[in-house]
Amino acid sequence: MKTTRDTLWNGDLLFEQPARGYGYRFNLDPILLSGFVSPAVQVVDLGAGIGIIGILLLAMGKAKQVTAVEIQTSLAQLADKNIQNNGYTNRMKIINDDLRQVEISHADLVVFNPPYFRNNEGHGASEYSRDIARHERNGTLADFVAKAIKLATRPKNTHAVHSIIGRVGAIIPVRRGEELEKLLISNKHITILRRRFVQPREQSAAKYLLIEASYQEHNEIYKNNTLTENPLIVHKDDGRSYTDEVCELLRDW
């Protein structure tokens, strides 16, 4: 596979990824999700691609340990290189496996940036790797949610006394936001804690939705108390330049 080496944070973070036309390249979405979720100790990233979310969470000081799961061998190999190149071999590992089958222990936070299109939606990408990153060829949104809830659930052998056990964070197109929330709260122990809409510009309609939910043993006091935060505005109205908040996430001033 032909690749390129790209950087974030003014060159402090290095990412090797497929060259244009050779596979799925990361965009702003995983960066926004990394900035949105709350800190955690043990993090699992489902459908990790080249590992950008986990590496960013470690660099931001928002995770202590990360386990990343990626089904595509070529992307998992790139993620492993990125873990090494950014100095996180002792704090992050990549598992090349199907998220529907992989066995991982409990996580404090499970994150995912899933394929945005159902199998019967849109046009399939001509390049195979990009196609399965964009379409639900290897797992539906329901599969992502089911695995995330399982990982966020209290293990049977723990004696933790706090009510919030594990959290789930995701980014999804607005048109699938209601679907995601319904899937999450179909489990009686899951509560949507926070949501934040992402708008291209201040006067634009929201395009994406950021969600943070939690598994709770006794969640009655949290029900119907979802915090809807102020929208995240990506671009200034005067052109393509990013807003200060996005520049801060990119460390690009």
Question: Please, could you describe this protein's structure?
Answer:
By secondary structure, this protein is an alpha/beta fold. The chain has helices spanning about 30-35, 50-60, 75-85, 130-135, 140-150, 175-185, 245-250; strands at about 5-10, 15-20, 40-45, 65-70, 90-95, 110, 165-175, 190-200, 210-215, 225-230, 230-235. Strands 3, 4, 5, 6, 7, 8, 9, 10 and 11 form a 9-stranded mixed beta sheet that branches. Strands 1-2 form a two-stranded antiparallel sheet. β3, α2 (about 50-60) and β4 (about 65-70) form a beta-alpha-beta unit. α1 (about 30-35) packs parallel to α2 (about 50-60).
Which key features would you list for this structure?
alpha/beta, 7 helices, two-stranded antiparallel sheet, 253 residues, 11 strands, globular
Write the SSE topology.
Elements: E1 3-8, E2 13-18, H1 29-36, E3 42-46, H2 52-59, E4 65-70, H3 73-85, E5 92-96, E6 109-112, H4 128-134, H5 141-152, E7 164-173, H6 177-185, E8 190-199, E9 208-216, E10 227-228, E11 232-233, H7 244-250
Parallel strand pairs: 3-4, 3-6, 4-5, 6-7, 8-10, 8-11
Antiparallel strand pairs: 1-2, 7-9, 8-9
Helix pairs in contact: 1-2
